[in-house]
Amino acid sequence: IHTSYLLLLVLLQLVSAQYEYLGYPPSYPDPEHEHYQAPQLPADVPRIQLRLAGDKRKHNEGRVEVFYDGQWGTMCDDDFSQHAAQVVCRELGYVDAVSWSPSSKYGKGEGPIWFDNLHCTGKERTVAQCPSNGIGISDCKHTEDVGVVCSDKRIPGFKFVNFLPNHVESLDIQVEDVRIRAILSSYRKRVPVTEGYVEIKDGGRWKQICNADWTPHNSRKKYNERVYRMFARRRKPTYWDFSVNCTGAEAHLSSCKLGQQTEAVTNGTCVKGLPVVVSCVPGRAFAPTPMTGFRKAFRQEQPLVRLRGGAIVGEGRVEVLKNGEWGTICDDSWNLGSATVVCRELGYGTAKEALNGGRLGQGMGPVHMNEVQCSGFEKSITECPFNKETVDCSHEEDAGVRCNIPAMGFQERLRLSGGRSPYEGRVEVLTERNGSLVWGTVCSEGWGIMEAMVVCRQLGLGFAKNAFQETWYWAGQVSADAVVMSGVRCSGTEMTLSHCLHHGENLQCPRGGGRHAAGVSCSDTAPDLVLNPQVVEQTTYMEDRPMFMLQCAYEEKCLASTSNSVPANSYRRLLRFSSQIHNNGQSDFKPKANRESWVWHDCHRHYHSMEVFTLYDLYSLNGTKVAEGHKASFCLEDSECDEGIEKKYECANFGDQGITVGCWDTYRHDIDCQWVDITDVSPGDYIFRIVINPNYEVPESDYSNNIVKCRCRYDGHRIWMYNCHNGGSLNEETEQQFPGLISNQVTHR
């Protein structure tokens, strides 16, 4: 049957050989979850897909939306139960359901109401197996749309699967996987694989694609066809039943049209006699040898797009540079095609997922683009048509992406051992010793949250939750007790632990390995503290305050050292301001120490949950520090929250401390230590800087925005604060006007 215009909607995961899903490692000690298998559904069960959507929500909650028959719709809350919520959450890849909400708590959806009067037992593999009125049969309105809250924990090994088959002309075509297999010996040892046969896994067997309908739109880089033709003659290919015809703008092969069916001829090859071969160019981050000479000779251009807030390589909130300032993209009309343009621009593969609703954290600053409409052929997202009107957009609608990335084998050289779950354990590294590969531990001296961040990223386990310098409570592999890596120092952005600074073969670890080896625990989500720069700028003023009114502040070392030898009736000149600290991440910000270890300060009559929560510094224009201050977190609480979010943390009566997602904590200008002592500072121009969580005591998804910088002018009588902005929110040229203060890491590592 000739099916030139048949749309192929296949079960496609670009995973194992050329592309990998980085949510979880492919092989883990826990045998129960070692090989996640998508549920095998009977042929008569409708194929659906689910997603969570709606207003004021975290990544693991929202209105339940169903994709069926080419349309997204919703579920009605009639007869919905915790059992149904359990099935929904597990189908979405979460371990469990926490709760469910009726009456369109997350806003009214659109389209058909696909399910009504669901009666699930909780054991179904998909909602489509639950008894109901029948798919599409409902008497509900969208005011009855149901929502769920799923557990934070993901099912280890879970991979998003497209179950939607192709039912055109009674064909039900499903493909298990796609890969590029290196054929020539010169490419077999290269990482990543960049050239070879395109192979489709069908019925458990890898098959080649006939190049009958393959065009330069499918892959553009040229290769040596003569060599591959010779190879195909020597080794008989096994062809898939269909050829493939792409336009070149598709996000993945599943969106391409099927070409003609393969015609078997006497020599066992397809019409043109050659399996499809592609040759790819790896992105900058994955190039085998960096072009160091080029980088020295030419200054790299400022990128126009970046990803922020993602746990793993190739995912994050999309931010674009416009008029010298970084901003976000509104998720109206955001789709896989536009997301693919972003991914390719950044040197990744096509987009795996187009995310909406600020699922990877909310940005700060302007929303630059709305209703982006890419054709798929653009080289940059900035070339795509879009609506400049963003009045109705907020950062709750920030768009994000998850990109396919090459299989680099990073996860095979690192493992966590001895932990209670796949998310924790002693860090063990595979390294070469005396000509053979051996597993060993990492020296824990200097081991901190930045190093843990890299480990969790390399293993695809999300963000760091804790970094451990002792792991005696985790019985790792005895054969791997010896230290094979020491002196590890990471900036936190590296793709693998081996990319961090370390001692190499010159190991130095007096503590030894074993019980003193480095360990980590990881989490799918993390908070993200961002300080509001406008509040700092608008509330700054100067006060002369007598020493006898500063005794508590003096005891907490909030004054300059010269205050040690001044009389009680002298004055200190204080630069005062307010701090408004938002949690724009995906989980609550909580102090590292539990309440039993909080420190009581008798003078101020309160507990400190973090001894140093913020640093306040004044620098000369050449980067020399001229004055400093600090603030302990005597009370981390929800001062205010976005509409629809309830306050959770309150310090009164020795209550829990923290900052809820979508809330902010305000340290007012009139409280003790909310200042910098500038008594000894001469008039002039300065740079003022605030750093939140400066010692990385609490893990966050993004530390680059923990810093606020301002220009400051002091004439001896008055003080002005201007050009306040978050770290990394402006282009490189503007940032260079703040010497030595580019990032949080530079100062503290």
Automatic annotation (TrEMBL):
Catalysed conversion reaction: L-lysyl-[protein] + O2 + H2O = (S)-2-amino-6-oxohexanoyl-[protein] + H2O2 + NH4(+)
PROSITE patterns, sorted: LYSYL_OXIDASE (PS00926), SRCR_1 (PS00420), SRCR_2 (PS50287)
Post-translational modification: The lysine tyrosylquinone cross-link (LTQ) is generated by condensation of the epsilon-amino group of a lysine with a topaquinone produced by oxidation of tyrosine.
Top-level enzyme category: oxidoreductase
GO biological process, one term: collagen fibril organization
MF-aspect GO terms: copper ion binding; protein-lysine 6-oxidase activity
Bridged cysteine pairs (disulfide): 76-140, 89-150, 120-130, 246-256, 374-384, 490-500
Cofactor: Cu cation
Enzyme Commission (EC) number: 1.4.3.13
Keyword list, A-Z: Basement membrane, Calcium, Chromatin regulator, Chromosome, Copper, Disulfide bond, Endoplasmic reticulum, Extracellular matrix, Glycoprotein, LTQ, Metal-binding, Nucleus, Oxidoreductase, Repeat, Repressor, Secreted, Signal, TPQ, Transcription, Transcription regulation
Primary localization class, coarse: nucleus
One term under GO cellular component: extracellular space
Name of the molecule in the record: Lysyl oxidase homolog
Species name: Neogobius melanostomus (round goby)
Lineage: Eukaryota, Metazoa, Chordata, Craniata, Vertebrata
